[in-house]
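tool=predict chain=A
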Amino acid sequence: MDDWICVEGCDAECCDAIPIKNAFLEENKHLYQREIIKRFEFKGQKSALLLTKDSKCVFLSANNKCVVYEKRPEICRKFGVVDVLACPHLDNEGKIR
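tool=predict ok
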């Protein structure tokens, strides 16, 4: 899957809170960018959804940059390049809509 550059001024619409594997959360908890107000556990999947005040991902910085971008979860890698996870700004080839 190829990466592309997000459009300038994007509000990180694809970076809402999603279930993330507990091992990844634990390994990277020192990188959390937002206060967690509630944690929902998905025990059968060994994952959790960390709810923040603005419902954004805990790894999204104040300037809408992913602080775990290089090792981000697979679901995050698919946003924008898989039709059902379409970016509102770019098509799945990275061209402005």
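The helical segments are 22-27, 74-78. Strands lie at 20-21, 36-42, 47-52.
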